[in-house]
Amino acid sequence: MRAAAGALLAALDEPARQLARHDFDDEPARRWLEYRPRPRPGVALADLDVVAAKAAHRLLATALSPAAYAQAMTVMALEEVLDRAEGWRRGRHSRDYRVALFGDPAGDEHWAWRFEGHHLSVSMTVADDRVSPAPIFLGANPATVRHAGRPVSRPLGPEEDLARELLDALGPGGRSAAVIAEEAPADIISATRPTAPGRLDPLGAPRGRLGPTGRALLDRLVALYLDRLPPELAAREAARLDGGELHFAWAGPPEPGRRHYYRVQGEDLLIEYDNTAADGNHAHTVLRRPAGDFGADVLAAHHAAAHQPVNRDAPR
Fold first, then answer.
1. How far apart are CA 248 and CA 133, in angstroms?
2. Sign of the CA dihedral 225, 179, 212, 168?
3. In 3-state terms, what secondary structure has residue 117?
4. What confidence tens digit (pLDDT) does each residue in 117-170 have?
5. What is the Cα–Cα distance from 100 to 198, expressed in whole angstroms?
6. Tally of CB atoms within 10 A around 163
7. pLDDT, tens digit, for every residue of 185-215?
8. What CA–CA distance (Å, rounded) separates 114 from 60?
9. How far apart are CA 17 and CA 290, in angstroms?
10. DSSP readout, 146-191?
11. Dihedral angle of Cα 304, 110, 222, 143, to the nearest 10 degrees
């Protein structure tokens, strides 16, 4: 990440570099999540030459697995599809994504970066060379493009299909605990807030009360979201969650093609998915860490280590 961030800064001209760089202590800009087509901090891909734009993509690729990077590229390309569907009225385009860096990746003990635009937001924070990987948001509009009844584009299909498989496997008792509402909420509950809720009630069905198939499917669903990260980061996040309780909640009807929502909660974990806008063809998904978003975990560890009291009586 340091190498990719340095290569990006080196590829930017001075005006672009000034747009991309921010102080690490600029909290409003750094603790930022926005998945709507709104103004945002950073320099736009549209304003970069090919070399600099490729450097921005290489930085993004350090944070995502190959599969998640492919999802991200599809999400970006859907801007052109959506613009056509809207009659070209809003001028959406696939280079309307911005990259922002906070602090100095070459020298600072802690620094951060974000790659963001409509339906894509990836934030990474680094402290003492330990990476804190959240929030990660991926959306899709349209969620599915079909031809002759078959999907030709469905970038978030695995996130929906696996959750439906889990819901089907719960049985009547498990579903009664998991289904928390007959109608889905209008959007993910955590929305664009810089701090995610520590707990969303009702929690839904606890993993410990599911059968073997349900537990295995819930674990696979969590792994699907963690596997958005490169293997080393995904394995570390999985180890952090190992042994902790998980809860799965669903809202809306179970039939495909209708508006629905689900979430998974665990210790410092919030996964949310909704497909509620555009009559159930506009999906949002997010992986958040309520206590660790935007590097809160690694920054706390860094500050604790830096402010350890000195034992002046210790042998020298």
1. 22
2. negative
3. strand
4. 999 999 999 999 899 999 999 999 999 999 999 999 999 999 999 999 999 999
5. 27
6. 23
7. 999 999 999 999 999 999 999 999 999 999 9
8. 8
9. 31
10. EETTEEEE-TTHHHHHHHHHHHHHTHHHHHHHHEEESS--SS-SST
11. 150
